[in-house]
Design goal:
mainly alpha
């Protein structure tokens, strides 16, 4: 099958949700946990793999479109080193993941970043990790300062309205801020210095999201708007494309836009807390729990998209053939949202995305010429039988 035929494949009708189609939703993951967390292995055969805890409690790795098959291929994580010829980077990442009892996108990202900065995955990966750590640290520190300043503006009273954010970097400014916030604490029955401590906890908790202020944005906020840009860029790119590739590009645009909408709803809820500092500080225990749930959900919603956005950003500007290959890859492996995150009205849309990408992913693996050979498939089946 040629790439043109691949783009054309799936460009027909998709399963409908309703009478006569009781199993249409079976192509979608039931939950974020069953979808698994994206694992950034560098070994080519393991690209877009995910790690999850299976129903038996065993840690599994899920491989989409493996050996030209539809759906995903699941195998015990501990067999990975025996089946695949892992890069040094992937062996180090494997050694970290195999010790974990649960998996979240934030946790996997933290371990992957720690491996990347060692340089075993190459200069580019190390540089990206080091730069990412540096930028996120700067945004986190500025966000902490800004959150304290917002608290002063909202709760500190008239005595501190003349203060600027930069004043909080001075000893005199910090003393004025502490006195003002302690007055608010006393008036609401809170302990002195408790607000300063709570704001510190708050800034750490919300660091992945940050604030909707330039320089204070966290990685999840950047990623959300990265999805918006991806959708816009691909839409503009597709205008001059043939109908078959426009169909594929449309699936990328729609999936990115729908995921962005889910992420924005969560972001808006998280940002509401920043506008109600007094109420939050008076019931921090409950607010902290609710905020953590929303941030955790945001990690899951956006999991797996950063690599695809980076892939699109790296496209050669004057190589149309390579650009089409990248769109094919994004369309084939774009993360789908699980049933637990969807309203019923969204079911048909995501089934359409998933059915088409299962066809594309399996064919794209075949076109990869040698990523998965017959001997590897035999090894996979042997290990799966042994572990059953």
């Amino acid at each position: 099958m040629t790439r043109q035929q691949l783009a054309n494949k799936g460009a027909g009708s998709s399963p409908k949700i309703g009478a006569g189609q009781p199993d249409a939703l079976s192509c979608l993951p039931a939950s974020f946990a069953s979808r698994g967390g994206r694992t950034p292995f560098t070994t080519k055969s393991l690209r877009y793999s995910r790690v999850l805890i299976g129903q038996s409690g065993r840690t599994l790795v899920s491989l989409p479109g493996l050996s030209g098959g539809l759906g995903t291929y699941e195998m015990p994580l501990e067999t990975l080193r025996e089946v695949f010829d892992l890069s040094v980077h992937d062996r180090m990442l494997f050694d970290r993941l195999i010790t974990l009892e649960k998996f979240t996108p934030e946790m996997v990202r933290e371990h992957a970043r720690a491996v990347a900065v060692t340089g075993v995955g190459g200069v580019a990966l190390a540089r990206a990790g080091i730069t990412g750590n540096k930028d996120e640290k700067a945004a986190r520190e500025l966000g902490q300062l800004t959150l304290l300043y917002q608290a002063l503006r909202q709760l500190g009273g008239n005595d501190v309205q003349d203060m600027k954010r930069e004043d909080l970097l001075t000893m005199d400014g910090q003393i004025r801020a502490r006195k003002a916030l302690n007055r608010f604490a006393t008036s609401t029955g809170l302990e002195n210095d408790s607000i300063i401590d709570t704001l510190g906890d708050w800034s750490i908790l919300s660091a992945p999201v940050g604030l909707a202020i330039e320089g204070c944005e966290g990685p999840l906020r950047h990623l959300t708007f990265g999805l918006q840009k991806l959708a816009g860029d691909v839409e503009e790119w597709s205008i001059s494309e043939q109908s078959d590739f426009r169909f594929m590009a449309t699936r990328v645009i729609n999936a990115a836009s729908a995921t962005k909408d889910h992420a924005l709803r969560l972001l808006r809820k998280i940002d509401l807390w920043n506008n109600e500092l007094g109420k939050v500080l008076q019931d921090w225990a409950k607010a902290k729990e609710d905020m953590q749930k929303h941030i955790d959900r945001l990690w899951w919603v956006l999991d797996g998209w950063q690599e695809l956005i980076d892939l699109w950003r790296s496209r050669p500007q004057h190589d149309r053939v390579r650009q089409r290959e990248i769109v094919e890859e994004i369309a084939s492996f774009a993360p789908v949202l699980p049933i637990e995150a969807l309203e019923k009205i969204e079911y048909e849309f995501w089934v359409d995305v998933r059915v088409n990408q299962m066809l594309w992913a399996s064919e794209l693996r075949k076109l990869g010429s040698g990523e998965i050979d017959a001997d590897m498939v035999d090894r996979l089946e042997r290990f799966r039988r042994q572990s059953a």
